[in-house]
């Protein structure tokens, strides 16, 4: 595929003083950017941290740095240079001219990733909106090359003034339409929620920083224990997979887009929209890279975003009781035994597999803990409802009468909502 062959260089301009701890932070930041670029299919053939004494208005980088970068671009046949910083439209255009290749900045890279990962209607619209606003703020031919290749929104025309005016109008019109569509989607969101609740198993969502190991963990867990793909899962998106826990209970594992350090503010709404799955989750697995120099700050960031979602009503207020913290990459810091497990957390290595059985048991235990005791009186003959209760909960008591069956069961709050929805529909 053409896009998988796109050769890229990732450059991190670094303005902070080069103290030893800062160097480690810069290296981690560069690794993050490399991971992000690789996640959209770019082949990274060069990466570098460039120390900035001052931000040059024309090119951001110093002229010597631009010269050696040009040589590197030629030598390595680089098609795209990613500057992990914010570029003004002028800087971007000047760099493209000087380097003789496409140049994109951090915001453009992140937008691309969100565009690929947005799963819900709202997520897709929100990302497209952020994308158009970004383009409008530039109004020059920017990264249409990458766009076309990847089938995105590459509709910007030539660089002439009239063309730019026409583009400005077109983008403006599209933004107005998108905002209207978004409102429409938000109005009907409640309806979609109810429909999603009919996924008949508890949902466990993975959240965490990019590179924390979410996908590795997702694959490790699903690779080992996927249950037969039935009709239901064919219609779900590929970031959702069903697995069976040691208890025999089935769950849906749902991967989400990763958190990114210093997320540009204009992308916050788009990011939150891509996190919508978390609102549906019975359990949130917060995957952390405990070997990362910013590990603690990253944890706070994730919790702050979830708290923000709770304040805005997207997430239920008791979200903290549904989080299991997963302290990943224990193998890099001396193995499971060497790591102090925080309360409510499980230490693992998604790569070596250590701690995975304990994690599965923790999910099982947390689901059991979250169950509520409910009583139902079902008419005899409603075998399907009774069967549903047996399949999704634990029946603790059952009394069969002439016309009615009384059942006491333990159910998850979400399952209880699903069950109530079913009985309400039958009553209709
Ligand atoms: N040593 C070690 N490396 C790990 C472990 N888990 C993941 N990794 C590595 O960390 C890198 C990032 O892992 P991913 O699973 O792609 O991370 P992610 O959280 O899904 O990242 P995004 O998809 O960008 O959000 C990869 O190179 C993995 O091989 C682990 O337990 N130990």
Give a concise summary:
Its cofactor is Mg(2+). This protein has helices at residues 20-39, 63-75, 89-99, 106-117, 121-136, 144-149, 161-187, 189-196, 214-225, 231-235, 268-274, 295-311, 356-369, 383-392, 413-427, and strands spanning 7-14, 43-51, 80-83, 102-105, 203-208, 240-244, 250-255, 283-289, 323-328, 345-347, 372-379, 394-400, 404-411. With 428 residues, it is an alpha/beta fold.
| CATH fold-level name of the largest domain | Rossmann fold
**Strand residue percentage:** 15-25%
How many β-strand runs? 13
Largest beta-sheet details: 6 strands, mixed
Poorly predicted regions are 142-159, 225-235
The end-to-end distance, rounded to whole angstroms, is 52 Å
What is the total domain count? 4
Give, in spatial order, the strands making up the sheet with the most strands.
6-7-5-8-9-10
Order of helices and strands: EHEHEHEHHHHHEHHEEHEHEEHEHEEH
Structural class: alpha/beta
What hetero molecules are bound to the protein chains? guanosine-5'-triphosphate
CATH architectural group of the largest domain? 3-Layer(aba) Sandwich
Helix content: 40-55%
Shape: globular
Mean pLDDT: 83
Q: Oligomerization state of this entry?
A: single chain
What's the name of the CATH homologous superfamily of the largest domain?
P-loop containing nucleotide triphosphate hydrolases
Number of helices: 15
Radius of gyration: 25 Å
Name of the top-level CATH class of the largest domain: Alpha Beta
Protein name: GTPase HflX
Cofactor: Mg(2+)
Keywords: Cytoplasm, GTP-binding, Magnesium, Metal-binding, Nucleotide-binding
GO molecular function: GTP binding; GTPase activity; metal ion binding; ribosome binding
């Amino acid at each position: 595929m053409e896009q998988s062959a796109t050769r890229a260089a990732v450059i991190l301009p670094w303005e902070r003083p080069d103290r030893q701890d800062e160097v480690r932070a810069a290296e981690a930041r560069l690794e993050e950017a490399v991971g992000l670029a690789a996640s959209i299919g770019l082949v990274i053939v060069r990466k570098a941290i460039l120390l900035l004494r001052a931000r040059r208005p024309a090119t951001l980088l110093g002229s010597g740095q631009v010269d050696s970068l040009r040589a590197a671009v030629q030598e390595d046949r680089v098609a795209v240079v990613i500057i992990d910083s914010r570029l003004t439209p002028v800087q971007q255009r000047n760099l493209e001219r000087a380097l003789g290749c496409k140049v994109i900045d951090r915001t453009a890279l992140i937008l691309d990733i969100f565009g690929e990962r947005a799963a819900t209607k709202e997520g897709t619209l929100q990302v497209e909106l952020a994308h158009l606003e970004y383009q409008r703020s530039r109004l020059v031919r920017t990264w249409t090359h990458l766009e076309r290749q990847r089938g995105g929104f590459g509709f910007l025309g030539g660089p002439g003034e009239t063309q730019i005016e026409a583009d400005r109008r077109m983008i403006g019109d599209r933004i107005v339409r998108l905002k209207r569509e978004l409102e429409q989607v938000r109005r009907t969101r409640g309806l979609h929620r109810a429909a999603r609740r009919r996924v008949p198993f508890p949902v466990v969502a993975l959240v965490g920083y990019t590179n924390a190991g979410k996908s590795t963990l997702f694959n490790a867990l699903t690779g080992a224990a996927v249950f037969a793909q039935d009709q239901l899962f064919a219609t779900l998106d590929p970031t959702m997979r069903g697995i069976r826990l040691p208890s025999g209970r089935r769950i849906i594992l749902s991967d989400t887009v990763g958190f990114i350090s210093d997320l540009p503010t204009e992308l916050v709404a788009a990011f939150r929209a891509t996190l919508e799955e978390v609102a549906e989750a019975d359990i949130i697995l917060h995957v952390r890279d405990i070997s990362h120099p910013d590990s603690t700050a990253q944890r706070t960031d994730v919790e702050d975003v979830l708290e923000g979602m709770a304040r805005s009503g997207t997430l239920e207020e008791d979200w903290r009781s549904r989080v299991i913290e997963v302290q990943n990459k224990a193998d890099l810091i001396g193995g499971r035994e060497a790591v102090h497990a925080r309360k409510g957390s499980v230490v693992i290595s998604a790569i070596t597999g250590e701690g995975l059985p304990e994690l599965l048991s923790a999910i099982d235990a947390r689901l059991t803990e979250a169950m509520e005791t409910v009583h139902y009186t079902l008419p005899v003959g409603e075998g399907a409802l009774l069967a549903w209760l047996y399949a999704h909960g634990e029946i603790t008591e059952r009394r069969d009468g002439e016309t009615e069956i009384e059942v006491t069961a333990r159910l998850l709050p979400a399952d209880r909502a699903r069950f109530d929805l079913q009985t309400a529909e039958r009553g209709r």
